[in-house]
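Progress report, Aim 2. The chain analyzed during this reporting quarter is listed below.
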Amino acid sequence: MGPFETEAEARQAAGDVDRAERQRLLLDACIRASEPVGAYDVKVIEWLADQPPAICAVIAGLIRRAHDAASTGRID
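Predicted structure tokens for the chain:
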């Protein structure tokens, strides 16, 4: 997901999803990155899920792209 050049692109990618779907999107990005998710992490993800779908899409996309880049050696 992403990179996004505009908020409109992020809104389009996110679609009109409810809070539970936004939370799942963020958790899935962390799980896909094979990162353990602690209790406080979940609280922050729950807080983020209260944000607009476009913001959640950007955050999830950043997590996924950072993981992908690290796993392919594109970043240190």
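The chain has one domain: 10-70. The chain has a mean pLDDT of 90. These observations will guide the mutagenesis work planned for the next reporting period.
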